[in-house]
Design goal:
Strand content: under 5%
Order of helices and strands: HHH
Largest sheet: none
Number of strands: 0
Number of domains: 1
Oligomer: single chain
Number of helices: 3
Helix content: 55-70%
Shape: elongated
Length: about 120
């Protein structure tokens, strides 16, 4: 249960940090497409982009560690020392982790692709 909360928090943190890192480039474009003026103020976030990108990779690294870390070997086939069942793999969590990784990668690459799109 505690690992699921930590894994979910690291996924949410990595996506939030990637969005914040791309806000300087993606934000004004999205607001301009929506017809909302004055969104150029998000360009002020540009100096913080390297720190937010690093924070994004830290959160993703924590998420991958919590998802794919080695589990202790069971003592018996039935379960561990306390008689509990061994936990099943969390396929949904793994899928969300990889989906978040792809989303983060696209958000981080968007500023570099903008000159080719427009």
């Amino acid at each position: 249960m505690k690992d699921d909360v930590a894994r979910g928090a690291s996924l949410a943190g990595s996506v939030a940090a990637a969005i914040a890192a791309s806000a300087c480039c993606v934000g004004p474009l999205v607001f301009a497409l929506l017809g909302i003026g004055g969104a150029g103020a998000l360009v002020a976030l540009e100096p913080y982009r390297p720190f937010l990108v690093a924070l994004t990779f830290v959160f993703l690294g924590v998420g991958f560690y919590l998802t794919y870390r080695p589990t202790p070997s069971p003592v018996s086939a039935e379960g561990d020392d306390c008689g509990c069942e061994m936990p099943a793999t969390n396929r949904t969590g793994k899928r969300l982790l990889w989906f978040s990784t792809v989303l983060v990668t696209l958000a981080l690459l968007f500023p570099y692709a903008t000159p080719y799109l427009f």
